Amino acid sequence: MCSQVIEHVPYDDRIFAELRRVLRPGGLLILGTPDYDTRGWRTVEPLYAFFAPSDRRVTHYTRSSLVALCAKWGFDVENVAYVFGSEVMLALRKRASAALA
Fold first, then answer.
1. Nearest CA to 14 among 24, 22, 26?
2. What is the pLDDT of residues 67-100, one digit of tens each?
3. What is the pLDDT of residue 99?
4. pLDDT tens digits for 7-55?
5. Are 25 and 94 in contact (CB under 8 A)?
6. Is 70 in contact with 19 (CB distance < 8 Å)?
7. Could you give the C-alpha distances from 61 to 22, 27, 34, 77, 80, in angstroms and in order?
8. Strands 2-3 and 28-34, how do they pair?
9. How far is CA 100 from CA 25, 57, 79, 94, in A?
10. Contact yes or no for 34/87 (Cβ under 8 A)
11. Contact, 92 vs 76, CB < 8 A?
12. How far apart are CA 6 and CA 101, in angstroms?
């Protein structure tokens, strides 16, 4: 499970390569991050900035951008859910084959 982590560091292919490396073929990854396409997150983010100014999010993902990245790195989406309409949670299955999309 990786929730509220990837948005705190600049995007780098090594993040997704490492998530893929440590998970066995067929394994399940739960990946969560704020969805910058949602009204919920756009409402909540200014509150975070005010009450926790050191809690910076430097990479802004959306559901569609995250799904595309995960497909590129060999993960298939099994389920999508939201936490309070703002954090997208993906249930991702690592493809058994070594081929990347």
1. 22
2. 999 999 999 999 999 999 999 999 999 998 756 6
3. 61
4. 999 999 999 999 999 999 999 999 999 999 999 999 999 998 899 988 8
5. yes
6. no
7. 22, 23, 7, 16, 15
8. parallel
9. 12, 28, 20, 10
10. yes
11. yes
12. 21
CA distance 39 to 85: 8
Q: Look at residue 35 in the predicted model and tell me its pLDDT.
A: 97
- C-alpha dist (Å) from residue 87 to 15, 24, 28, 74, 99: 19, 26, 19, 22, 29
DSSP assignment of the chain equals -EES-GGGS---HHHHHHHHHHSPTT-EEEEEEE-TTSHHHHHHHHHHHHH-TT----S---HHHHHHHHHHTTEEEEEEEEETTTEEEEEEEE-SSS---
Cα distances (Å, whole numbers) of residue 24 to 6, 11, 18, 60, 86: 20, 23, 12, 27, 29
